[in-house]
Design brief:
Number of helices: 8
Number of domains: 1
Oligomer: single chain
Largest sheet: none
Radius of gyration: 18 Å
Distance between the termini: 15 Å
Helix content: 55-70%
Structural class: mainly alpha
Order of helices and strands: HHHHHHHH
CATH topology: Four Helix Bundle (Hemerythrin (Met), subunit A)
Length: 176
């Protein structure tokens, strides 16, 4: 029988992380910061179309990666409820950070739509903090949890720049 992740774990992880990063913090910044930080800096003809396109791509990536974590990893996106199995499927065969890339795309879409110092600043803070956190903390934890399998994956798949062809570890394919 396939083990399923309890719904409450999924909901807590989703509302604490993506909803906070993509909704609560941007609304909070635009509520508490002075008008000079939140007014639109630039406007161009297809600005909203471009913003929606970026956000849809990001939301699609978030959905796909979370389904993979639930279905194959038996965990959630949250560090306190991580996948029990290393997930190297779908977009994870092209890059190691597709979930954070999805969040980045949504935040970029918000920044394009709002075009304010507040939205641009939040995007920069988010990207910078992840560029520090992921290699210093997350990747070390993954190395400890998954050992040689993760090290081989890390060696063959870049973190932020997608591969042109999907990576396949034939030894892992036999395990599935």
């Amino acid at each position: 029988m396939r083990k399923q992740v309890p719904l409450y774990r999924v909901l807590v992880a989703f509302f604490v992380l993506p909803v906070t990063v993509l909704v609560v913090i941007p609304i909070g910044l635009h509520t508490i910061l002075p008008a000079g930080c939140t007014r639109t800096l630039i406007h161009f003809r297809i600005q909203q179309v471009f913003a929606v396109l970026l956000s849809v791509i990001g939301l699609g990536m978030l959905y796909a990666t979370n389904v993979l974590f639930l279905r194959y990893g038996k965990g959630t996106l949250a560090p306190w409820s991580p996948p029990e199995k290393l997930v190297i499927r779908g977009p994870y065969r092209y890059m190691r950070q597709p979930m954070i890339f999805g969040v980045f795309m949504v935040l970029l879409g918000e920044a394009v739509w709002l075009a304010s110092w507040a939205s641009i600043g939040w995007l920069i803070i988010f990207v910078t903090s992840n560029l520090i956190y992921i290699p210093l903390i997350e990747e070390k934890a993954l190395q400890m949890r998954f050992g040689e399998s993760y090290e081989k994956y890390r060696h063959n798949v870049r973190s932020w720049i997608p591969r042109l062809a999907p990576w396949s570890d034939e030894a892992r394919e036999d395990e599935r």
